């Protein structure tokens, strides 16, 4: 049996998109199949899978990490998903996309896609460690969990082949860890180790968590725009007066075809 798929990325955080409008093509997408699809040697390759399902009169983004685990939300993924819905399903902008972290509103202006990522939750101080380094970190939820650590040098995070050590009581289901340095006023750069995917070239929810942590540390007025550089590009994030986080960045669809996986 062959299934249609597309391949896309946002700032090089890459995804396999699986159209499944009536939810019957992929049924209960197993973790094993997600791992096979995301395998960079034997599969299509990706940091995760975006399954597109029609639900309650709209579209639901069923997001899975490369290891097959489920996450509540994916910020780069939701922009790619919006571009897919616009170009292949005829959905106009602005559009609403259902996720496990609630409904997100997506808009586009040329090549810039903006997601209203909703309200962040700032949940206090924690800590993260890699071999030879421990940092205090801010626990921020963007619907999914993040630990944001400001570091002296992004290289201090090391190879990030393993997940950074974190407080299991704070993050019983694991955590996405962002390492951040300052590049200028309202300008930061980050690396990320994603729960379920390892180190990736970008993380949209991570960039939002980082901008929130930076704005708090800076005492910046709400509405201040932050530039967040990631290894795969740049995202722009604003925490607004009405407590919403707006994230703008690119969304690319680069291939489509049929897969037997
Ligand atoms: N890359 C994503 C986040 C994907 C989910 C994350 N790994 C988790 O398990 O929460 C993004 O762009 O936000």
Automatic annotation (TrEMBL):
Q: Which residues form the active site?
A: 74, 203
Keywords attached to this Swiss-Prot or TrEMBL record, sorted alphabetically, are: Amino-acid biosynthesis, Cytoplasm, Isomerase, Lysine biosynthesis
Which positions are tagged coiled coil?
Answer: none
Gene Ontology biological process? lysine biosynthetic process via diaminopimelate
Has the keyword Cell membrane been applied to this entry?
A: no
Task: List localization entries.
Answer: Cytoplasm
- Tell me which GO cellular component terms the UniProt record holds: cytosol
**What EC number(s) has UniProt assigned to this enzyme?**
5.1.1.7
An example of a GO molecular function for this protein is: diaminopimelate epimerase activity
What sort of enzyme, by top EC class, is this?
isomerase
Q: Which catalysed reactions does the entry list for this protein?
A: (2S,6S)-2,6-diaminopimelate = meso-2,6-diaminopimelate
Q: Which Gene3D superfamilies match?
A: Diaminopimelate Epimerase, Chain A, domain 1
| Primary subcellular site in the record, as a coarse category | cytoplasm
Alphabetical list of HAMAP family matching this protein? DAP_epimerase (MF_00197)
The family annotation for this protein states: Belongs to the diaminopimelate epimerase family.
Q: How does it assemble?
A: Homodimer.
Q: Which NCBIfam families match?
A: DapF
> What protein is this chain from?
Diaminopimelate epimerase
Its source organism is Nocardioides cavernae
What is the primary gene name for this protein?
A: dapF
């Amino acid at each position: 049996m062959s299934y249609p798929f597309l391949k896309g990325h946002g700032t090089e955080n890459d995804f396999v998109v699986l159209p499944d409008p009536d939810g019957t093509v992929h049924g209960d997408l197993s973790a094993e199949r997600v791992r096979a699809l995301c395998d960079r040697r034997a599969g299509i390759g990706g940091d995760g899978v975006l399954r597109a399902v029609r639900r309650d009169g709209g579209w639901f983004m069923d997001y899975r990490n490369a290891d097959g685990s489920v996450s509540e939300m994916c910020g780069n993924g939701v922009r790619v998903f919006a571009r897919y819905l616009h170009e292949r399903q005829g959905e106009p902008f602005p559009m609403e996309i259902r996720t496990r972290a609630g409904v997100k509103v997506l808009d586009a202006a040329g090549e810039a896609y903006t997601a209203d990522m909703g309200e962040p939750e700032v949940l206090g101080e924690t800590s993260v460690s890699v071999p030879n380094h421990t940092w205090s970190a801010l626990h921020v939820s963007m619907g999914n969990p993040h630990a944001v650590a400001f570091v002296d040098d992004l290289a201090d995070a090391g190879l990030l082949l393993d997940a950074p050590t974190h407080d299991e009581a704070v993050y019983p289901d694991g955590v996405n860890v962002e390492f951040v340095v300052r590049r200028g006023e309202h300008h930061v750069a980050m690396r990320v180790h994603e729960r379920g995917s390892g180190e990736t070239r970008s993380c949209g929810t991570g960039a939002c968590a980082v901008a929130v942590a930076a704005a708090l540390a800076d005492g910046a007025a709400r509405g201040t725009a932050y530039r967040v550089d990631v290894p795969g590009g740049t995202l722009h994030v604003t925490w607004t007066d009405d407590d919403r986080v707006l994230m703008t960045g690119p969304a690319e669809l680069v291939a489509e075809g049929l897969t037997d996986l």
